[in-house]
Amino acid sequence: MNSSLLLGIFAVCLIDLASAQCDLQAVMGCLSDFQQLSKSGSTDMAAMCLSFQKAVTCLAPLKENCNSDENFQSSMTSFNSVESMCAGGGECTGRLQNCYMDAGIDTTGGINPNITCEDAKTIQTCVKGLSTVCEGNYVFSQTMTSFQDVVSNCIGGDQCTVGLRKCYVDAGIDTTEGSNSDLTCEDATNIQKCLMSLGTVCKGNFGYDASMTSVQRVVTNCTAMCNYIKECNMDYTFPNGIPSKPDYESGCRAIECVESKYKRCFTDKAMESSIKKMKAFCMDANLKNGLETYKDCLATSTINEDCKGHLAPKIEIGGNETEAEECMRIEEYAMCAKNGVTSCDEEGFQAYAEDTARKVIKLKASREGGIECTTSAGVQAFSSYVLILAAALLMFTKAF
Prior knowledge:
The protein is mainly α. It has 21 helices and no strands. The chain is flat and about 65 Å long. The protein starts with a helix and ends with a helix.
């Protein structure tokens, strides 16, 4: 479960609640204060959790009459899972919020506060002191993990940070894109040499270690790939969006060819996992049939141009996208695809575009074996309860 559930769950789970015995109006009344607080744009987590607890108390006497309703039962299962975000009550959430305020960070804006290395160290020290009172609190654990990465990225100071960025810039890589996925073998080799020269000054720096690991994998694969990509006429960016039927068929033939060749060259678990996911993508009957059924709509659609910005994470070089952030990006891409085809009124096309977009972007998920996302979460270089609530508030407000 990721942090956006705190508000997003409500919007999803209460839409179809209806039963002759279940008092839906009373249920909605229990949530009215919570809804108003969300629409106000508040990022006060202590207030949010207080409102959540009041809603729980209010809903308690309604459960007996509503428990026979399958939709209500399902919604309550998700609703109760939010409890971990408010574990420790105000003693935790209030003090967690104070850690930011004491460091001079304005938490009211809700989006990407400017946190320096010194700020990050101060907040991390403060948050560590809450380990007992915040035990079991999801936001606390996410904040701890995030700030460990942020503080680690400060090791080596500007000498490391500037040097790390320069390695990419000198190789002609735009560091604002934040992804190693488009590195050529020559790029990777040059960057690796540069990174090795920073080994001493950047020792222990999270961003440096992540960059080194990523680039090393590209170099290793380039060294041993036996030219199978060239032999199979494979476009390594496939699928770079929702493909046309000819592009889909061509890309899938290349995948089949690559699978038969790559094991002769080297063994790589990530490559094996990637090919396995690609094969499933190529054997998806619904996807394949839809490319033919909706070919006219797809031909005039601008989905791939309008939505391509969501395919790769927008983080600093060496940064680390969390699972919650990746889930939000998947959700944004799917919604962009769905909303981008409204001009074509062919029945079922919107649903197909959304479903296919999810399949496409999940192929590019960074975690081995893929990820399972139940909802969305904020996309930033690091997580904090401020960012968590900002994304969730937006979803909840739009739902009502």
